[in-house]
Amino acid sequence: MRVLGVDPGLTRCGLGVVDGGKGRSVRPVAVGVVRTPADQDLAQRLLGVADEVERWLDKYRPEAVAVERVFAQHNVRTAMGTAQAGGVVALSAARRGLPVVFHTPSEVKAAVTGSGRADKAQVTTMVMRLLGLEVKPHPADAADALALAICHLWREPMRVRLAEAEARAAELVRAHKARLAAAAKAAGTTTKQNETGARR
């Protein structure tokens, strides 16, 4: 499976494409960063991000897109810009019918390093090790995008299996309740018939 990981942002939007093989094997395909000028109009900055994401989707044809979920930050303006960039990415993927999954920073860190509290340097080091990279992805947004793709490749199959198991369990519960209701209804009908026969 091929995944496009996206670390959303307006000043820098990290993009990373990773192929997943058997087991937990992963292979780097491409990594880069979209940059937009801070003094540019917001709409134009979002358009710049969208155009580059569209180009990557066309060129690398991922089967899924993993985006970092935005959490509240002290800088509200930065958080808003990050969320808007993430929305643009999700829209571009949705237009192609691609599944989009948002992963939290702690989920990504835990998947890649084993600790949800790892710092950026630890994440970058593990990304390099896992993908066999000799050169550190720069800036950190690029490494984070690769980490997102790896996280998705490793977590999504488990999430899908869990969702399927929950759906099967819910179906069993519904079927069991239906059988109980049918049995109770049948028992009530039998009781009424017996009462009617006794009065006769």
From TrEMBL:
Active-site residues, record numbering mapped to chain: D7, E68, D141
UniProt binding sites for Mg(2+) 1: D7, D141
InterPro entries for the chain: RNaseH-like_sf, RNaseH_sf, X-over_junc_endoDNase_Mg_BS, X-over_junc_endoDNase_RuvC
Main localization (coarse): cytoplasm
Subcellular localization(s) per the UniProt record: Cytoplasm
Gene from which this protein is expressed: ruvC
Source organism of the structure: Amycolatopsis albidoflavus
Family matches, as PANTHER family: CROSSOVER JUNCTION ENDODEOXYRIBONUCLEASE RUVC
Cofactor binding description: Binds 2 Mg(2+) ion per subunit.
Alphabetical keyword list: Cytoplasm, DNA damage, DNA recombination, DNA repair, DNA-binding, Endonuclease, Hydrolase, Magnesium, Metal-binding, Nuclease
Enzyme class: hydrolase
Catalytic activity: Endonucleolytic cleavage at a junction such as a reciprocal single-stranded crossover between two homologous DNA duplexes (Holliday junction)
NCBIfam families: PRK00039.2-1 (NF000711), ruvC (TIGR00228)
Cofactor annotation: Mg(2+)
EC number: 3.1.21.10
Quaternary data: Homodimer which binds Holliday junction (HJ) DNA. The HJ becomes 2-fold symmetrical on binding to RuvC with unstacked arms; it has a different conformation from HJ DNA in complex with RuvA. In the full resolvosome a probable DNA-RuvA(4)-RuvB(12)-RuvC(2) complex forms which resolves the HJ.
HAMAP family referenced in this protein's UniProt entry, alphabetically: RuvC
Residues the entry annotates as binding Mg(2+) 2: E68
UniProt record similarity statement: Belongs to the RuvC family.
Entry keyword annotation includes rRNA-binding: no
Task performed by this protein: The RuvA-RuvB-RuvC complex processes Holliday junction (HJ) DNA during genetic recombination and DNA repair. Endonuclease that resolves HJ intermediates. Cleaves cruciform DNA by making single-stranded nicks across the HJ at symmetrical positions within the homologous arms, yielding a 5'-phosphate and a 3'-hydroxyl group; requires a central core of homology in the junction. The consensus cleavage sequence is 5'-(A/T)TT(C/G)-3'. Cleavage occurs on the 3'-side of the TT dinucleotide at the point of strand exchange.
Full protein name: Crossover junction endodeoxyribonuclease RuvC
